[in-house]
């Protein structure tokens, strides 16, 4: 940017203003990229949970042992977030199982 002839035509105040704008836009872009990358990692982790065929009785420890080598598992770095998504999935499976049992009781 410093070697661009258009940049050299500006006064020092204008250069500072242009540079500040550039830095702000670059920070915004990096934030968006990071946010999108994290969202993609979450979606891939959820997809892994779908494909893993976990049940309502599955444990996070066994899941980790079995899938720790998968790139979708390692893409989501924070163990706490992995655990949170895993237990959210388990909760939804338990709820579905409970609804299915209730539906079967009604049919009888």
UniProtKB/TrEMBL annotation:
InterPro entries: FF_domain, FF_domain_sf, TCRG1-like. Keywords: Coiled coil, Repeat. It comes from Parambassis ranga (Indian glassy fish). One of its GO terms (molecular function) is RNA polymerase binding. The keyword Repeat applies. Residues 37-92 form the FF domain. It comes from the Eukaryota. Gene3D superfamilies: FF domain. This is Transcription elongation regulator 1-like protein. Residues 24-58 form a coiled coil. GO terms for cellular component: nucleus.
